[in-house]
Amino acid sequence: MKYCIHCGQELDSDAVFCTKCGKKQISENKGVKQENEGLALGIFSIVFCWLPILPFVFSIIAIVKGSKHNVLGTLICGYIGLILSIGFLAFHIFMIVAVLSGMLPMLIEYLSRLGETYFPNMQNYLSSF
Ligand SMILES: [Zn+2]
């Protein structure tokens, strides 16, 4: 036996709609499934944070779902995913700007010069192969 989640009317355990108020009954399983969906999206956003845009969107959905169902794990995953996604998004944008503005060769030259300064034997080591 269960009761309407909206008006409290006694219902058959397999009833989908309330016989009194007519509102749809959402099963507990569905709520758990949605919570897990949020958590899955949060984890997805962490694992794939190096991709542009998509994990950023997923992490926001995870945060929304996590706060809606009050699930701390989903919220934490969502926030970690969001921070990582923003970081990598910034990196992607930086690289795109660097390529478009012709800064990349300068950047590579700068980095290789930096490498030569700190690892002077690197060139010999690499050319020994
Ligand atoms: Zn009802």
How can the largest sheet be summarized? 2 strands, antiparallel
Bound chemical compounds: zinc ion
Structural class: mainly alpha
Order of helices and strands: EEHHHHH
So how many helices? 5
**Fraction in helix:** 55-70%
Radius of gyration: 26 Å
- The end-to-end distance, rounded to whole angstroms, is 75 Å
State the shape: rod-shaped
Strand arrangement, major sheet = 1-2
The tally of strands reads: 2
| Mean pLDDT figure | 81
Q: How many separate domains make up the residues? A: 1
Strand-residue fraction? under 5%
Low-pLDDT regions: none
Descriptive report:
There is one protein chain. The chain is mostly helical and 129 residues long. The protein has one domain (29-127). The chain contains five helices and two strands, in the order E-E-H-H-H-H-H. The chain has helices at residues 28-47, 54-68, 72-100, 104-118, 122-127, and strands at residues 2-3, 10-11. Strands 1-2 form a two-stranded antiparallel sheet. The N and C termini lie far apart (75 Å). The structure holds zinc ion. Zinc ion binds at residues 4, 6-7, 9, 18, 20-21, 23.
Describe this structure in a few short sentences.
With 129 residues, the chain is mainly alpha-helical. It is built from five helices and two strands, in the order ββααααα. It has one domain (29-127).
Task: Set out the fold topology.
Layout: E1 2-3, E2 10-11, H1 28-47, H2 54-68, H3 72-100, H4 104-118, H5 122-127
Antiparallel strand pairs: 1-2
Bound molecules: zinc ion.
Provide key terms for this protein:
single chain, 129 residues, mainly alpha, two-stranded antiparallel ribbon, rod-shaped, binds zinc ion
